[in-house]
Specification:
Elements (H helix, E strand, L loop, with lengths): L24 E5 L3 E2 L2 H6 L4 E9 L6 E6 L7 E2 L16 E9 L12 E10 L20
Antiparallel strand pairs: 1-6, 2-6, 3-7, 4-5, 4-6
Length: 143
C-alpha cells in the first residue's frame, strides 16, 4: 500500500475550497437554516458559536464555514465563533459548509471522521473570553 502524496489537505497543490477534489475530503453544504425563532428568546443577536461532535475526536479533521448571505461569502469558524453573527439580525438565515478531511480516509474510508451533530448557539450578549495555559508537571505515581 502506498500513501498518496498529491491532492491531500494542506498540500500546496490542493485546490481551493470551491474546486476541491474528493480524494481526501468530503464536503457538505447545508440548506439555509432559519434562525428567526431565536429572536423570540433573545431579541437581538450579538454573538454566536458553533460546536460539533465527531468520532474519532480530532479537532483538525473537520472545518466548518458559515455563510450569512446565501453563499455570497464564507467565513471559517475559528475557535467556535460565528464571525459577524450580528448580521443575522438583518437576514436570519445561516448556511454551513462542513469539510471532513483525513489522510487515513484515502486508504481506509471506514476510518474517516464521522460527524454526528452540529450545534448553533446564539446570544444577545457580545461574547468575550479569557484563557490561559496552565503548565502541569505530571509524574507517575506508585498507586
Amino acid at each position: 500500500m502506498e500513501w498518496i502524496s498529491k491532492g491531500v489537505y494542506n498540500d500546496e497543490n490542493m485546490p481551493d475550497i470551491d474546486t476541491i477534489r474528493a480524494i481526501a475530503m468530503g464536503v457538505w453544504v447545508s440548506p439555509s437554516f432559519d434562525i428567526s425563532p431565536a429572536f423570540e428568546k433573545i431579541g437581538v443577536i450579538n454573538s454566536g458559536k458553533i460546536g460539533h461532535f465527531a468520532r474519532p475526536i480530532d479537532g483538525t479533521d473537520i472545518d466548518i464555514y458559515t455563510s450569512l448571505d446565501n453563499e455570497e461569502s464564507w467565513q471559517k469558524v475559528e475557535d467556535g465563533f460565528i464571525e459577524n453573527a450580528d448580521r443575522l439580525n438583518d437576514y436570519p438565515y445561516i448556511k454551513l459548509r462542513v469539510i471532513v478531511k483525513s489522510y487515513v480516509s484515502q486508504i481506509y474510508p471506514e476510518k474517516s471522521p464521522k460527524l454526528f451533530s452540529i450545534t448553533i448557539i446564539l446570544s444577545d450578549k457580545e461574547y468575550k473570553e479569557w484563557s490561559a495555559d496552565i503548565p502541569l508537571q505530571l509524574e507517575w505515581g506508585d498507586n
